[in-house]
Amino acid sequence: MNGAPRSANAGVTREPKAGPRPDKRKGYRQILHTIDLPRHLLRSVERPARYTGGEWNAVKKEPADGLTRFAFCFPDIYDVGMSNLALHILYDVLNRRDDTWCERCFAPWVDMEAGMRAEGIPLFSIESRTPLRAFDVVGFTLQYEMSFTNVLNMLDLAGIPLRSQERGEDDPLVCGGGPAAFNLEPMAPFFDFAIIGEGEEVLGEVMDLVGLLKRGEIAGRAAFLEQVAMIPGVYVPSLYQVDYLPDGRVASCRPIREGIPPTVRKRVVVDLNEAAMPAAPIVPNTEIVHDRVFLELFRGCTRGCRFCQAGFVYRPVRERDPDVLLEQAVRAEGATGYDEVGMLSLSTSDYSGLGPLTEGLVDALTPRRTSLSLPSLRIDSFSLDLMEKASSTRKSGLTFAPEAGSQRLRDIINKGGTHDELIRAAGGAFDGGWSSIKLYFMLGLPGETMEDVEGIAALAREIESLYYRRPSEKRRRKLELTVSTSMFIPKPFTPFQWEPQDTRESLDEKRKRLRELLRSRSIRYQWHDLDTSYIEAVLARGDRRLADVIEAAWRSGCTFDAWDDRFHLDRWLDALRGRGLDPAFYVTRTRGEDEVFPWAHIECGVDKAYLWREKEQADAAQTTPECRLFCGDCGAAVFDGGVCYGKA
Description:
With 648 residues, this protein is of the alpha/beta class. The chain is built from 22 helices and 19 strands.
């Protein structure tokens, strides 16, 4: 993320400072006052609508004595958090319960945080402006590792002790979930429990137990944690002990209580047609990153790109029927007033019912002047006819993700799509009237050479030439070709989890070479920050020893680390050195086949043996067919759903 304003207190060093503690009397969570936001504070901050609430379709309930209060916390600003589909789904799921009120909370931007601390205002929920420490459960979604310091900052601003062991009976339960929870270890000491996988069903089981605790039918916090750990898909870090080898590698992670499961398997929702989807999503009062209605076509991905964590941890693929999606789209569009509906999935063009769905959506929405939007498209399944239908009311840019600059490297990462297919897709787009195309690539992929990097530039130049070879009457606009590169980060539960990240020096050399080759008025080159990617790799592959590092980085002033102008590499390196940890141990070290990973006690449903076979396939530059064509016996059939149904 770029362009965020710098904070006047960006270099602040934080000392431990807990907020005011609640009264230790029964029912205190219902009687704590709501926050009265001073007008002068709202007038002094950027986008005060981030904090005022009152949005269309937001849920308000009366905080009766028996009502369980759940704060859904997104550790980034409102603009980003409100664009997250999981927030809307789980908000709807929890608020359908008569015994639960789910409210939202977002990380205040640095101007608002400074004002709140100066005024002594604790962090509060959007709906009722109730202090977070008054809630029964405070739940964080962990969408990316660079939000970890924001979690600590929000807990501190709320007056909630940072670590699970420091919390008492009158403190909220703090839970986590989301993609980054598949390796929670760097944040393990800060969470009471976490949900691994999809939360729609398991959250209800957890809230049933919270209700028992609230009514005194479970004897205290410790007893609750032991009981909630028995729910499939729930991980309680304090009930597991990590042992290390002399060289710092993990030796084991094992339960410390008899009966606690030795491994935690993720939860999945097998039938997406029956899964919750809000009929009336919240409509923000201010512009957000993705300001539209979303349709979730399916979960998972059959392709098996070897760098993609989401493609493995969300297996098996499960689809919604087109008629279900059409009904959801019409209902949500009518309940929100949005003029754009976005199709959402890891690989939208792989949805088996995309043609009939698109035709139905166009027929239903075009008379209302509501447009469709598609995410990045696969070059091997691009359909100009589909894009013409989706863009019948509005022509925006097209996005493709070749990921690598040569066919050899695309085979190594198992990314489908050939050079000729991309050129045909670009040519078809130009013929259809498009003049804006964005191409996504990665730098530092396993096996990458400078020749592969130069191939990215050659591909962009070929597309540029393709456009300008067309007759001038067919080139009504200037070509806008954007080449965007991110840095490869080896993630848990992928075939590349054994691989090292490329060195920062090598990545910088590749980035500079590419920038040199892409100098053109028609081509814009964007790249992700090298230093941020380096620390993200540390956190993605980290163990529990990093908890002290994260806290030290936060106390030195690190927050909003995903924002380029808020990131401070020197503070992270100081925090690592101060705890005697070498970042190279986590980032640039190759793992052996039998190494015990910090996340070894978590089961995503894909076998480690399968991932190793895929790594060997990558080493040989051999591709693996997608799941619908060939079952590679990855292990996801254990869930008895989706494309794996009947293969267990």
